[in-house]
Amino acid sequence: MKTYTLEEAAAFLHLSPATLRQKVKAREVKAVKPGRRWVFLESDLVAYLESLYASSREAPLSGCDKEKPLCHSTNAATPGG
């Protein structure tokens, strides 16, 4: 099983080390500190990313709904009058 340092894990998640440290303290990302350094398991980092996918599936990214267009007004004035 592959392990990562704080810096490596942050790069893997595309976060800054400071942001990752905050996420560890908030218990959003699993990590251990057996000595002076944080250690992350690759499987825990992947699980964190997968949890983000789950929450992003709940709402469409574009904000578009096929049944209801977002920004189309039916009573807009026609220009050039």
Please tell me about this protein's structure.
This protein has a two-stranded antiparallel ribbon. Helix 1 crosses helix 2. It is elongated. The protein has a domain of 54 residues: Multidrug-efflux Transporter Regulator, Chain: A, Domain 2, CATH 1.10.1660.10. With 81 residues, it is mainly alpha-helical.
Key words describing this protein structure:
81 residues, mainly alpha, Multidrug-efflux Transporter Regulator, Chain: A, Domain 2, two-stranded antiparallel sheet, 2 strands, 5% strand, elongated
Draw up the topology in text:
Layout: E1 3-4, H1 6-13, H2 17-25, E2 40-41, H3 42-56
Antiparallel strand pairs: 1-2
Helix/strand order: EHHEH
Strand content: under 5%
Determine the N-to-C terminus distance.
70 Å
Apparent shape: elongated
- Main sheet attributes: strand count, strand direction, barrel closure: 2 strands, antiparallel
Q: Under the CATH scheme, which architecture of the domain at 3-56 would be assigned? A: Orthogonal Bundle
Percent of residues in helices comes to: 25-40%
The strand count comes to 2
| Average predicted local confidence, pLDDT | 84
| Physical arrangement of strands within the biggest beta sheet | 1-2
Low-confidence runs of at least 5 consecutive residues: none
Task: Assign the CATH class of the domain at 3-56.
Answer: Mainly Alpha
According to CATH, the fold-level topology of the domain at 3-56 is Multidrug-efflux Transporter Regulator, Chain: A, Domain 2
Short description:
The protein has 81 residues and is mainly alpha-helical. It has helices at residues 6-13, 17-25, 42-56, and strands spanning 3-4, 40-41.
